[in-house]
Amino acid sequence: GEGIPPLVEGVGGRGAPKTCIGVDWKTLMAMDDLTNTEPIVVNDITIIDVWADNLEEQFKHLCHLVTVHGYRFVAMDTEFPGVVARPFGSFRSHTDYQYQTLKCNVDLLRMIQLGITFADENGNLAEPCCWQFHFKFSLGDDMFAQDSIDLLTTAGINFERHSQDGIDPMEFGAWLITSGLVMNEDVKWISFHSYYDFGYLIKLLTQEELPAAESDFFESLRVYFPCIYDIKYLMKSCEVLKGGLNKVAETLKVKRIGPTHQAGSDSLVTSLTFFKMRKLFFDDLIEDTKYLGVLYGLGQGGHSAPIPWNE
């Protein structure tokens, strides 16, 4: 998720913030709660690494968490090899340009990691709760942006092992489609600025390039992931929360377990951040008519900034 290209950020779309000017009393109370709240410290959590040789075993286990044990809040993050292309042509809107940039890069590139963390409706983490899937990726054969690979290497990603032992995307997609995690309105997906993350997941599930039209992409998204909360979009109603995932987690006093820029750790931070944010800013009840299914930066979660180019 943090590897999303630094295109123009903005505000707009449906689901406007509770307050646009000044700070209302709920925000003041949340700020006071932030001042007095204890840091979230989660001990004894193991992030389970999944490679080709233990994919089936681990998928069976995590499926039971959803279908049997009721851990239906699934926080997700991906790591991917950056952005290597920009679209040419005429664009109807800024979000159309954003989507075409997403499409051309997801079509060209391969996901490197997927992290998922399971919690119940009250934010209680499953035991175990966090899985990190490592996909087949070759620095010799696959396309990438060098700065992204440098960042991921520094974060500890072992690209030699990804090349040798990584998960085949087609096999992963087959397991995911039958897992109960997708096409299930009872499963709530939690993410942060996540249209690239979901772009790669749609590609895994369909084994096809992304749709040509943004509207068709959202139609696929609603089929496979009917319930999504994007923290970055929720932040539009939380004036004191700014920046990326790490900054928001720091503001909310969420302590990280594991290295940043690895998908498992980032998904765990995403889960903890969501529930802390929901408690402090939304009274533990998020208004789905405003926020459900909106991805920050695309569609109704986009904005009306000038189109970067129009050739």
TrEMBL record:
Its EC number is 3.1.13.4. SUPFAM superfamilies: Ribonuclease H-like. It is found in: Cytoplasm; Nucleus. One of its GO terms (cellular component) is cytoplasm. One of its GO terms (molecular function) is RNA binding. Keywords: Cytoplasm, Exonuclease, Hydrolase, Metal-binding, Nuclease, Nucleus, RNA-binding, Transcription, Transcription regulation. It comes from the Eukaryota. Belongs to the CAF1 family. PANTHER family: CCR4-NOT TRANSCRIPTION COMPLEX SUBUNIT. This is poly(A)-specific ribonuclease. It comes from Hemiselmis andersenii.
